[in-house]
Structure formats: C-alpha cells, structure tokens
Amino acid sequence: MSKQRLIVMCVDALFTTDLADVCRMEGFREILEDAAVYENIECIYPTLTYPCHATIMTGCWPDRHGISHNEKLSPAENNREWYWGYGNLKEKTIFDYARERGLTTAALEWPVTAGGPIDYLLPEIWSYDPEDTQMREAILGGASEGAREIYEKNRHMLCWKENPRFDAFNVRCAVDMIHKYKPEVIFMHQSNLDHVRHVHGLHAPQVQEALRLHGHWIQEIADALKEEGLFEDTAFVILGDHGHLQVDYNICPNVLLKQEGLLETDEQGTVRSWDAYVQSAGISAQVFVKHEQDLGTVEDILKRLAEMGFVREIFTREQVKELYHLDGEFAFVAEAAANYAFGNAACGELIVGTDRSDYKFSVATHGHLPFRGEKPCFIVRAKDVPKGVYEGGRLVDEGPTMMKLLGLQEMAGEMEGRALY
C-alpha cells in the first residue's frame, strides 16, 4: 500500500443515527460519498470521553491503558482535575509509533495528550479559573514548542473552555498547522455536539445546528488540505466516541454514605474526609472503599438502591474487569436504571432533578454500559479501504485500523483490537 497521510476528526457524541442527517450536510457529504462507514461501533465501559479516546489511540481496553474515568479521584476538590496528561497512559499510542517511523504528528484538543510526544500539540486542558492568563498557562504548559506561535495567533478566539468557540479555535489552529507545517498525522477532538446534547437532549432541535457547524469545520479542514495539494493523499477519518442516554433524575448515594458515617462534609457540602465515596461517571458510578470492614455496608447500600429501582446492575472490581476490561482502585461499579444518572452530592435529597452545571448531571449524558442507547460511528475515506456500510466494529479496533492506514500495521502487535479492513 502506498504511503498516505492521516487526519482523524472526532465529533464527540456523533451517533450512527446522525448519518441520515449529516450525509446531506457540508463537509460530511463529500467524505461520506466515497467512504467506508462502520455503524454501531461497540464502545467501552464506561462510555466516557477520556477512556474512549485513550482506547482509540492505544488500541487497548481501559484495564490496559489505565484511563478509567474522565476525572481523577479527589472528593475534597469535587474531582476537578481530569486525566489531561499523556503520562497517565500505561500503553504506547499511535503517536509513539508514528514518531518511531519518522512521521510528523499534530493533536488539537485530543484528550490525554498534554505533554505527549507530538510535534504540534495543543492539548485539551483548561484552568480552574476562566481568567485568560490562567487558561493560557494551562494550555501552553502541556503544548509543544512548535504549536505555541499558532496558539498565540488564535487565542483571541477562546473564552475559557466554552463552546462552540473552543472548537472553532481548534479548527483555526489546525488549518494554520496544515498550511505552515503539513503534519503527516493529525488528530482533532471537537466537543460542541456533545455539549449541546448534554444541555438540550439527545435529539433536540439544537442538535441539527450543532451538526451543521461540525460539517462546516470538516469542510474547512478538507479545503486546507486541498489548497496544499494533500487531500487525495490523506486518509480522512470522522468518528464518534460514545452515545448518550436521556436522564430525568440523579441518584446521590453519597447522601447515604454520610448518614452511615462513612463520609463527612463541611457546612457547604464539600467532602472533608471519607472512608467510602461514590464518584459519578454519569450513568455509571465508581465506588471507592478504603477499609475492607466497610465493604459489606457499602454493598448493602448499593443493593438497597437496586431494590428501590434506581440501580440496574452492581459489579465488583473483579467482575467488571472480566466482563468489560475495566479496572481501577474502586471496589464496585454501579449502573443506573433507565432515566437515572449518578450525582456526587453528599448533602440534600437522595434523588434530585437534572442539573446543567455539570455534564454528568444533565438531561442527557453517558458513562453507561456499551450495549445501551445510541452507538457511535466510524467513517473512513481512504485509498484501499472498500467503500460500503459495515457492522461489527469495536472502539478498540479503531487504533489498529489507523495504524494500517499509515502502513504501520506491523508495529500494532501490542494493540488488542484488529484492523477493520
């Protein structure tokens, strides 16, 4: 197979069912007309953005790559730090393999890449405070030297991490990188569609406008490649990372843990100490227990929630590793019942309404078991990839597929997935 470049554009929360709409939209249309389309991709557990992106770029399940959640466990700080850094990964990624082969790489807003071995890198990361100077320090602290000038040129487009401005900034920087540096491998993550679905619902009218905006950004990237004479020699991948489910209520098990004396808060509800803690992963939750003698009490609380109809499944750490290749320091993983998600609150009512202040507590969210709800898609326009519509792909197969697109398939032996063509 002749050498080709690769560009990967993840449209966060792009569903297979969206294909019927986007096939007529700018950007999407040209790619889809000459593409292999893999529908209803089997996701990982939990269906969260950072574990999903780690799986895509490593070709490994979460128990291998080590990213089991978006957010690092830190109850006293409301788990505000995410797995932004590349150093959190336990496996090599496509960026490592590309560098070993001498390919130039770029990543823009791609999760778990800050400080990574990427030539032109503007990572997905944000400051705790929306002040511009703090945001600049956060991004440039994890960026590559080669991307700093492009960041400075376009930073006026940012307003903290707010979308669609964050994605528009990402695209403008990518266009500049294509014109100035022509990286051979480019990975981009865009989160506006996911944000719209969280706030308004799975198929709200606002979703159509978000899809059109993503189509416009795809067209901008395609046009930049054409202007440089690179489009026909570039494998163009568009993918979604996970689905969503509707949410009407949030369950707050930490309220029960506090009542049992396993967790303490201050007057504002901030966790000050804990022996057990339930960390929301949206529609699932990871349950941490410090002392073995408390395992029975915590399990009884989870079983009570199941008997009340709020929880549909409870897994031990061993069970969830065997069934879904998920591992971590948690003792249990709980999956919410239909129309429920998990909250982190330890004060107030056990069951509360949805809350737009956090993606995990909104009217639609994810983190659920991979067979539930909407499924993502994987679209490839490339030489030697037969055009058509296919089923049976898995998220863990996408990394090996990209390796093959770059002619690096002989280096993919440590990946757990398989190429889709």
Automatic annotation (TrEMBL):
Entries under InterPro entries matching the protein: Alkaline_phosphatase_core_sf, Phosphodiest/P_Trfase
Instruction: Provide the species name.
Output: Enterocloster lavalensis
Q: Which SUPFAM superfamilies match?
A: Alkaline phosphatase-like
Q: What is this protein called?
A: Predicted pyrophosphatase or phosphodiesterase, AlkP superfamily
Molecular-function GO terms, alphabetical: hydrolase activity
Top-level taxon of origin: Bacteria
